[in-house]
Specification:
The protein is built from seven helices and four strands; from the N terminus they run αβαβββααααα. By secondary structure, the chain is mainly α. The strands form two sheets. A two-stranded parallel sheet has the order 1-4. It has a two-stranded antiparallel sheet with strand order 2-3. Helix 4 runs antiparallel to helix 5. The longest helix has 13 residues.
Length: about 130
């Protein structure tokens, strides 16, 4: 396990962080992992229960990375259109390489507004 190897190499406390796009998978990943008789690792799982949808422009500007993650994890939320708008505004605070990375992650994710056939802002505009 990477966490055990990292702890041995760095000789300090470590944590296993799991980023989950699904709430159900996130809850499953939070369960302790037995390492045998000598211990247990309990992952820290980040999912929609732990990272609510960011719809505040100022917060998205201060934390653009979290705005991207919040959109990825809350793609079926009723306020996803607003969150997409503020996420894009927040990305104005990031360098070009970072924007390309975050948008490639976001487009590859589960947001209904960006999926083919979804009812997000792009799809509604095409219908009008």
């Amino acid at each position: 396990m990477y966490a055990a190897a990292l702890r041995a190499r760095l000789k300090c406390d470590t944590a296993l962080l799991v980023v989950c796009l699904s709430r159900a998978v996130g809850r499953w990943c939070e369960q302790p992992i037995s390492m045998g008789p000598s211990g247990t690792v309990t992952p820290v799982a980040i999912h929609s229960d732990r990272l609510p949808l960011i719809t505040d422009r100022d917060e998205a500007r201060r934390r653009p990375e979290l705005a991207v993650l919040s959109v990825a994890m809350n793609g079926d939320h009723p306020d996803i259109d607003k969150a997409l708008e503020v996420m894009l505004e927040g990305l104005n605070e990031v360098d070009r390489q970072g924007v390309q990375l975050y948008l490639s992650y976001r487009v590859a994710g589960r947001c209904s507004g960006l999926r083919a056939g979804g009812e997000g802002p792009r799809r509604r505009a095409a219908k009008a």
